Amino acid sequence: MKQLVVKANEVITYASRNVVMNGSDSLTATAKAVELATLKARLMRNEIVKIAYYKLDNTVRIALASLHPDICKANTNGNGIPKRYYNLFAYWDLEKNDWRAFKFERFIGCIEC
User: Fold this and answer.
1) Distances in whole angstroms, Cα of residue 52 to Cα of each of 7, 58, 60, 80, 104
2) What is the DSSP letter of 94?
3) 43-61 burial: b if 16+ Cβ within 10 Å, else e
């Protein structure tokens, strides 16, 4: 299995957005940023991850997320990322069989299966 690589500049970006948008303290923002960067690395390593985040109506969504190429290729038309997913964390929801996305600031965490 590939090594899990978390990029420092991603952690800094996620942490700064969390501090600015949510007004959280830097320690909490950094912890969430590390978890979000780890989530991205796990998804890029073709793992299936159970995640939780706040939807726009402030309810919690728990989803099985994947970016596995076999799943995504069958559901992508080849035109790139739709404009509505810019500045969002997009993933394929295995339970709903549809693309979903959330803002980085609304991320709660990963749930171990």
Assistant:
1) 22, 12, 7, 25, 12
2) T
3) beeebebebebeeeeeeee
Local mean pLDDT, 10-residue blocks, the chain (113 residues): 75 80 80 87 89 94 88 64 71 89 89 72
Is residue 29 within 8 A of residue 15, CB to CB? The reply is yes
Max CA-CA distance within the chain? 41
Contacts of 70 (CB under 8 A, 6+ apart): none
Cβ–Cβ < 8 Å for 11, 30: yes
Domain boundaries, the chain: 8-111
